[in-house]
Design brief:
By secondary structure, the chain is an alpha/beta fold. Helix content is 25%, strand content 29%. The longest helix has 12 residues. It binds zinc ion (2 copies).
């Protein structure tokens, strides 16, 4: 069964796998190597590659060890430079330049985050259609139409953060300038043609500035489609 699996989502670590036909593509490596190995059921031979969005540890913790264990890791030059990793398994990707990994076609695109050269990914595969992976960005300047599966960050709501961080403006402003806010996510989704959408999963919710139930119901109401909230061990069938 083709599916998305979730090892974890949020500031304590992000790692997802796309299990399609007999191949596994990893999205971000924000856990230690042992956990990721267990997550793929020790079937490293099935892993065709790992895409890394940016250098922050909650996305990149296992980059070096994964590469050292013979898995190709794909990230931008800025991401590899700030991680200071050179390995023959590191593959530099560029925004708007498609690349082929196993039977997956990947299109990286620029996002807006406090990292050197962060990207999101549009993944295409003949067995699952298209999948959009957007995390750690306060804004998305592109429109994506007729996507089948979406994983999108929904980090905080302005209403909640204005209350929880009212005495910590520096931290509040840092989050506002680097992460995706509930109403901005809704505006982004509403600007897209969702006519062939099959699954939508909200990811990277803040532990202190979000509200799962509220986010799920607000987004469902806005787009008229069921919504999942990412959590450890959740499996989404594609
Ligand atoms: Zn993050
Ligand atoms: Zn980040």
């Amino acid at each position: 069964m083709n599916k998305i699996k979730i090892l974890g989502s949020g500031s304590s670590g992000n790692c997802y796998s796309l299990n399609v036909d007999n191949e596994i593509l990893l999205l971000d490596l924000g856990f230690n190597y042992k956990k990721i190995l267990e997550f793929v059921n020790y079937e490293l031979d099935k892993v065709v590659g790992a895409l890394v969005t940016h250098e922050h540890k909650d996305h990149s913790k296992a980059v070096e060890e994964i590469a050292n264990n013979g898995i190709d890791v794909y990230a931008t030059q800025g991401t590899f430079e700030s991680l200071d990793i050179q390995n023959h398994r590191t593959n530099i990707i560029k925004a708007n330049k498609p690349c082929l990994i196993g039977n997956f076609t990947i299109l990286p695109f620029m996002v807006e985050h406090d990292a050197v050269e962060p990207v999101g990914f549009l993944v295409k595969h003949k067995s699952i259609g298209s999948l959009l992976y957007i995390t750690d960005t306060y804004y998305v300047k592109y429109k994506f139409n007729k996507i089948n599966h979406i994983l999108v960050e929904c980090n905080y709501s302005k209403q909640i953060i204005d209350e929880t961080l009212k005495d910590k403006m520096f931290l509040r402003n840092r989050i506002v300038e680097s992460h995706f806010e509930l109403n901005n996510v809704i505006d982004f989704l509403k600007a897209s043609d969702l006519s062939v959408l099959k699954t939508l999963t909200l990811i990277h919710l803040s532990s202190s500035n979000s509200d799962e139930k509220l986010f799920k119901s607000e987004v469902e109401k806005a787009i008229g489609h069921p919504v999942e909230i990412a959590k450890k061990d959740l499996e989404i069938y594609l």
